[in-house]
Amino acid sequence: MTPSGDSIAPQTSAQPLLFTITLEPFGWQFTSDGQSSLLEAARHAGFILPSSCRNGTCRTCLCQLRSGQIRYQIEWPGVSIDEKKEGLILPCVALAESSLTLFAPAATTIATISRPF
Fold this sequence. Notes:
Blueprint lengths: L18 E6 L3 E5 L5 H7 L2 E2 L14 E5 L2 E3 L8 H5 L2 E2 L4 E3 L3 E4 L4 E2 L8
Parallel strand pairs: 1-8
Antiparallel strand pairs: 1-2, 3-9, 4-6, 4-8, 5-7
């Protein structure tokens, strides 16, 4: 209550939780709100992860999760049990559930891609 007797509503954070994603071996970082795929979040931040289908079947984006937790947008991503044990994930259909470190040596930045005029 305020001195005048008015009640004060508890403050809630309207800002979404952001996770830091690190791309190794470069040390590049971007953030994800856990609502967009890692592929989309990387692109939004200016980083390009190899991709083709964007639905978890072609495996072009396959990279290694070195630390952190993800969940998939689809029930059966195209990763075998042995690959999962090795930490391999598909960023095109993966959502961050924590800060992550990904080993993605084929990643590039938008600035390094030459564009024809």
